[in-house]
């Protein structure tokens, strides 16, 4: 089972992908988390990616594509994967299709979470992330039980450097120019499930599960 979570920055891809991956017992691969881990660990890949991420633009394909394709070739990914933040443009989508086809596999469904721009900005400006397990929280919508600490693992919460007003503006521009064309790409392939992403986290999660249930993907 290979499912992509598609949507603008702040749409709730990470929040919902983590929930659905646990429910379906699939591996959750978030390209942004892989890149942030590489930066935190000071690897060569992290050093290459840092300046792009800080500016809010995409990390070049020759860095991002092999990083994700290598990750999905790990044995633990055999039962299936939920992709969050990848693919981000047509070149990445085609590279993913090709890599899966080489193993006689294919993307099953694409969950497109649709949220208006005003709400996206509200969500990103109040977001806090666990430094350890990357779980996202929000000051108002989904605060942690103990302020500054992750409910799941107790890790320290921090605000992402690319959640500044300037970087968010750039990320939204990049999304509409380079990632939004994937909505048509997957719609034409008959794989798109459009989900209304407005409303609470639980409400949106229920809509996603119902849509996947309708496709006989989850019970
Ligand atoms: P990435 O980490 O992928 O960020 P993004 O796509 O910009 O998405 P976000 O993580 O900001 O948002 P989300 O949709 O996951 O929302 P979340 O669940 O956190 O990418 C960062 C950078 O890395 C890119 O700019 C690029 O440089 C690079 N990169 C990554 N992948 C790449 C690739 N494939 N190719 C090239 N470069 C790449 O939720 C947001 C907030 O809202 C949270 O606070 C959450 O608690 C809250 N929230 C969630 N749902 C709801 C709800 N229903 N109601 C109210 N609040 C909610």
Could you characterize the architecture of this molecule?
By secondary structure, this protein is an alpha/beta fold. The protein has one domain: Rossmann fold (3-Layer(aba) Sandwich). Helix content is 48%, strand content 15%. It is built from nine helices and eight strands. It has a five-stranded parallel beta sheet, with helices on both faces. A three-stranded antiparallel beta sheet has the order 6-5-7. A hairpin with a 5-residue loop joins strand 5 and strand 6. The protein is globular. The mean pLDDT is 95. Bound molecules: BIS(adenosine)-5'-pentaphosphate. The site of BIS(adenosine)-5'-pentaphosphate (AP5) has 37 residues, from helix 1, helix 2, helix 3, helix 6 and strand 6.
Annotate the secondary structure layout.
Blueprint: E1 2-6, H1 13-24, E2 27-30, H2 31-41, H3 44-55, H4 61-72, E3 81-84, H5 90-101, E4 109-114, H6 117-125, E5 127-130, E6 136-138, E7 157-158, H7 165-179, H8 181-188, E8 192-196, H9 201-214
Parallel strand pairs: 1-3, 1-4, 2-3, 4-8
Antiparallel strand pairs: 5-6, 5-7
Helix pairs in contact: 1-9, 2-3, 4-5
The chain binds BIS(adenosine)-5'-pentaphosphate.
